[in-house]
Specification:
The chain has about 300 residues and is mainly beta. It has a single domain, classed as Fumarylacetoacetase-like, C-terminal domain (Fumarylacetoacetate hydrolase, domain 2), CATH 3.90.850. It has three helices and 19 strands. The strands form three sheets. Strands 1, 2, 3, 4, 5, 6, 7, 8, 11, 12, 14 and 17 form a twelve-stranded mixed β-sheet that branches. The chain has a five-stranded mixed β-sheet with strand order 9-19-18-15-16, with no helix packed on it. Strands 10-13 form a two-stranded antiparallel sheet. β18 and β19 form a beta hairpin. The chain is globular, with a radius of gyration of 20 Å. It starts with a strand and ends in a 26-residue tail after the last strand. The C terminus is likely disordered.
Length: about 300
Amino acid sequence: MRLITFELSGQVGFGAVNGGEVVRLDTPDDTDGLKGYLARRHGAWTSPALGIRLPLSSVRLLPPVPDPSKIFCVAANFHEAGREAKPIPDYPILFTRIAEAQVGHESAILRPAVSEQYDFEGELAVVIGKFGHRIPRETALDHVAGYSCFNDGSVRDWQKHSSQYTPGKNFARSGSFGPWLVTADEIPSVGALSLTTRVNGVVKQSISLSKMTFDVPWLISYCSTFAPLHPGDVIATGTPLGFGSSRDPPEFLQAGDVVEVEISGVGLLRNSVEQDFDPRTANSQAALFSKSGLPSANAAS
C-alpha cells in the first residue's frame, strides 16, 4: 500500500493511493492522523475497498507523517568511492530534524535568506509502525511500517557554525518527505533498492542502498536503545556523496531549481526551490549576528 497524508479545502486527512485516486482511510473520530492508523493496523496491510474516493490530483500532499515525535538523521552512512581512506566508524553520526523543517511532494522548499550554501541530500526514510524500546536487531524490521523518500536539505554554513548540526538542518521548509509511505510488505529487501537524486534533471547522486554502513535493523536497534520509538517516528538513513558541497566546485541550490529524490520501489519526491525572505537581512546580512552585538562575557546573567 501507498499511504499519504493530504490537505483538501483546508482540512487534513489520510488515505491510500490507488492508481490516480485516493481512498480515504480517516474518519471524523480520528485525532492522531496517519501515525495512529499505523499503530492500529501495523502488519495488517490490505488494500482498502471502501471509503470516499478522491482524484489524487485534487489534494495537496503533506509529508506522509507530518507530526512525528522524532526524526533521527544519519550522516556519512555509505561505503563508496571517495570515502575509502576514512576508517569505518563504530557508531553513526546522528542528529535530529523537527517536523516544520519538511514539506511534502510538489511543495516548494525554501532557500534561506541568510545563506548561499543551501544543499540537497537524497535519502531513504524509515517510518516506525510499532512502539519499541531497546529493540533487538534481529526483530527490528518488525517495527517498520514502511519507507519513503527524504531530502535532508542542509544549510552548510549554519551546519558548521559549531560541531552541532542542528541549525543547518532545521530551517523551516528546507527539506522534504514523501510522496507517500510504501508499506514494508512491499519492500522485502532494502538492500535491493537504489537511490538517485537529480537537480534540474541531472543525476547528482546514485547508489545502491546495500552500501549502507549501518543498515536499517542496526539503526533501529541503536536509536531505540536511548529513545523509545513510537509509530510515526522517522529515521533518515543518510546520503551518499554527490551532494552540492561535496562537488568541485561546490554546487548549491538556487531559486527555480528542481530537486528529485527517487528510490526504486518506493517513489519519486519532487520539489522546486523558492527564495525565502528575512526582513532582518534587508540592511545588512553580515551584521545580523555580529559578535559586536553580543553581551559582554562579564555581563550579569
